[in-house]
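Sequence, structure tokens reproduced for absentees:
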Amino acid sequence: MSLLEDLKINVRSFDPGDLEVIKQITVEAFSGVSIDEAAELAFGPINGRDWKWRKARHIDADVAREVDGILVAESDQGEVVGYITSWQDTEAGIGYIPNLAFVPAWRGRGLGRLLIQLVLDRFRESGLSHAKIETLAQNDVGHHLYTSIGFREVARQAHFFADLSHDQADDQLDRDLNESD
């Protein structure tokens, strides 16, 4: 019996009616491992919007970029329980996986691995030579999953935000001048 049959899960293509539930899953799943949330912790809501609004917009971007690269996992009752987004740069030979998330009750059952494998198969069928997925350093679950599938960490990246409501450089210059007086 396959994992899909065992778990009574159907994996299908994205439907526009999935958008709002996928955004909800995204916001819940990325709590604690979102660059947008970290920025909000440092600066508060930005432009009158919270991090959840900004993170949900990433799904809009994924849909606009390559809607055929989105797979949805649903239970045998028709409930959307997770998804994966992907897109292909065929000229570069690289497939990208920007987002992968599940509702809490369906995490830890092998579905993330399954969806990634399905996307990697699609990349191979398209003639791509490499795949890229990113995660934050604090996402231990993601690190474990991705390396267990064959992804290798090749770099770490720092994310910086600046408050543009006033000129930080001028403030630093003023402090420096005052200290030298």
Q: What stands out?
A: The beta strands are 9-13, 71-75, 80-89, 94-102, 130-133.
